[in-house]
């Protein structure tokens, strides 16, 4: 028998609207937002019930093939929330916001990042792609502007001229990346989320996010792979 889903209140709706307009929200911000929405709407608030609150929203989003998902920032290991469209398996989610040529540049940037050793692509390498696009060639100045927009919209992150996928992008595109880059995309052996910036065991090939590597080896006297027990040859971040 099916249990009736809890009613969606104005507090739930307000929470969902803010999450959608943010693109991605850090967990501490989501907790504050949860409290604010409940208190504004004068509904029951409990500080440890954020997951239940989100589950209620997700039960109402299910028929719309949408879901609030939790993911981990590859930079600092903090949890984030984003609204994911499950019906769109392609990069089509972005199609309403960007032109075909911009999307092609994004896909090629994604290729460079995912196929790289460390989960980053240099701006030089990305800009060199600009005049090889099938849709039409893009001037480097134009490509620089487009990359800026991808960073502002939280699809890419940039640090010292190096680009990687933003936490928002990883949460929203996890399924797309896992199915389109089957040979190279891997999940972190510790937190089981998609790992773009990771260290990979030289013996058995498992990968771990840098924050997960840091956390896992903190308790070990000698860094050994959690799967094959071989010596972990990387510097622990």
Automatic annotation (TrEMBL):
Query: What's an example Gene Ontology biological process for this entry?
Result: double-strand break repair via homologous recombination
Q: Which domain of life is it from?
A: Eukaryota
Please state what class of enzyme this protein is.
transferase
Gene Ontology molecular function terms on file: ubiquitin protein ligase activity; zinc ion binding
Q: How does it assemble?
A: Component of the Smc5-Smc6 complex.
The free-text function statement in the UniProt record for this protein reads: RING-type zinc finger-containing E3 ubiquitin ligase that assembles with melanoma antigen protein (MAGE) to catalyze the direct transfer of ubiquitin from E2 ubiquitin-conjugating enzyme to a specific substrate. Involved in maintenance of genome integrity, DNA damage response and DNA repair.
Q: What is this protein called?
A: Non-structural maintenance of chromosomes element 1 homolog
- Native source organism of the sequence: Vireo altiloquus (Black-whiskered vireo)
